[in-house]
Amino acid sequence: MSDKESHNDEDVRSPMYAALAVAFIAVVFGIPVWWLSTTTYRASLPYQEIQELPTKQTNCLIPVTVISCLTQEEKQDFDNFQAELNALLQSADQMSLLSIQYSIDWKLCSFKDQEVLGTSSSLAELDRRLSTSSDIPHGQVTIYLVSQGYSLLNSTDSFVGTGRVAVATPKDSVVASLIRTRFANEDAMARVYLNAAGARRLDKGYELSFSLLNPQPATFNAQWNIQEAVQAYLNPFLQKLSEFAEFTVNSQVLHFTGLSIKPKHNEEDDSYRLSQNALPLIINPVEAKLGSHVSTNPSLNFLLFVPRSRHLPLFITDNKGQPVDTNAFLSPRWGGVMIHNVPKPSENDSLPLAVKIDTRRAMEVFLAQLRLLIGIPQQAIQDNVILAAPDKTGITDWEYDVLLRVRTLENLATASSTLVSLAQLLNQIGNIVIRDDIANQVYQAVSAIKQGHTYLQRGNLYRAFHDSKRAIAASEKAFFDPSLLELLYFPDDQKFAIYIPLFLPVGIPVLSSFVKALRWMKTKMKPKQD
């Protein structure tokens, strides 16, 4: 081989080896690095467990203690009473996703209980002494069976106190009704599962707004001590519900804000009336003047309206045309309105008239409306059942348990539905980043849901409620995390639109050089094979 041919071969060999080296580096190092650096990170999630959550049956156990304080003659039929009561409670309607079970602990009346039942002079005293004699946990109830002629019952069959205690005669249907309709409230529990596994947007807190509307400040100088009223009548209620939800309270006085409709005049008593059909027309014009709230929690508005002097007295009527006792009405998920009539000024009165609002009466009405707005069921009146009026807190212990139990079921159902929706979204869209902190929230939510179901099955309502709060908080935090949306703006077609102009001008020369290098290698290897 001549020097010239050797020199030409060297000139060809160097570019070919360079092309092969570039191709080798691109394939061995470039593509893996590019793949790893552009791959969407997706932490592992318990998809199988999430899919099983909506179909998981909720077993809710309600512990009941029945204490027999009967006479010797009545105790002879006690075995039959036990069997019949167990049969009535076991015949509770079971839904596919909800199973309500009762565990009854039968006990005999102690000497202390007999003394309390025999020496109490009133039902209020009996309720106080029985409720304070034993510390009954959340979700549990104690029923004392007394003789048919027990004087304090006054010919009725049962008495339900402010605590988790009831007194009843040994009638299996009466006791079963107390347990199922009052203490457990099966209807409220069943309503949770009537719509799509009970999933709905729950409110973690409420902003309570109290407004005094005075359309004629030149005629009436209306004053109310709302701060004192809130401390005296509302704060005990809110403090008892502090674990259930967060509450913030504000108040205001609005002048020159009246009704947008004209009430009808009633000539019989020279009064003015607002029918039920006209009540919805009151809210919309007034709502625009209430101001906006900055809290993420929903606002519940309570309006105390002082009518104009020419419309006094003003009454709200029912569907029969009769004035309602409270002179107030309720708007679901919005609030309530109460009309406060004041003395009509005479010609000799100096204006403005000083008007002092009866805040006690107003707060009684607003508190009753607030109970309904946050989900405390209204108790039906029965002739054979005496219900103790709530104490200064405005809610009995067993009503609070019903509220916690229903909210626990709602939280668990909503958290399960949220996780299922999140899992479906992540499966459908593969380029959503799943960070470790989001996966951690999902695992926490799944664990809290399982623990909530476990505690409900054991009858531990307090622990089940707090686990359900953790479950819904973790599930919503994962579902609404902003990082899930970061790469949704870069679908695959947009990625190709970015990569092709960038890599195509570089890739074609590299690929053509690599092909030439391969052909050169083949030609170099042929003589050696010969």
List keywords for this structure.
single chain, 530 residues, flat, 15 helices, 17% strand, six-stranded mixed sheet, membrane, glycoprotein, alpha/beta, PtdIno-glycan_biosynth_class_S, transmembrane
Brief digest:
The protein is an alpha/beta fold and 530 residues long. It has helices at 3-38, 47-52, 72-75, 78-90, 111-119, 123-133, 172-183, 186-191, 226-240, 280-287, 359-373, 397-428, 436-458, 461-479, 492-529, and strands at 58-68, 98-108, 141-145, 158-160, 165-168, 205-214, 220-223, 246-255, 264-266, 271-274, 299-305, 314-316, 328-331, 335-339, 353-356, 385-387.
**Count of extended strands:** 16
Structural class: alpha/beta
First and last CA, distance: 18 Å
Mind describing the biggest β-sheet? 6 strands, mixed
Helix count, DSSP H or I runs of 4 or more residues: 15
Uncertain stretches of 5 or more adjacent residues: 196-200
User: Beta-sheet strand percentage?
Assistant: 15-25%
User: Cα-atom Rg, whole angstroms?
Assistant: 37 Å
Trace the largest sheet across and list its strands: 2-1-3-5-4-16
Characterize the overall form. flat
Share of helix, binned:
40-55%
Average the pLDDT over all residues and give the rounded result: 85
Membrane topology: Multi-pass membrane protein
Transmembrane segments: 16-36, 496-518
Protein name: GPI transamidase component PIG-S-like
Keywords: Endoplasmic reticulum, Glycoprotein, GPI-anchor biosynthesis, Membrane, Transmembrane, Transmembrane helix
